[in-house]
Amino acid sequence: MSSRxxxxxxxxxxxxxxxxxxxxxxxxxxxxKEALVNAILETRGEPLVEVNKDEQSIARIKTxxxxxxxxxxxxxxxxxxxxxxxxxxxxxxxxxQTRILAGKKK
Length: 106
Description:
The protein is mostly helical.
């Protein structure tokens, strides 16, 4: 496992603590997770690998997730367990697709 994978598993708070160990990294309180990971890797001298995200597809899938969540809520109110189970399975698939498109899982 590469150090990029290890860093991406950490929370932003932990990444900020690691970044404070390096004097070259400044402005950590305003950085997002991806920027922190890249700054740490760059300071360590490790190669940076750009992840190409399919932003349009991710946005489309997230819209589907929101609609599916509404279906889940209505199924929960109706106490329809079979529909709730089916909707949860659909949500799981949609979330997995977003992770794949974001380049986090292969």
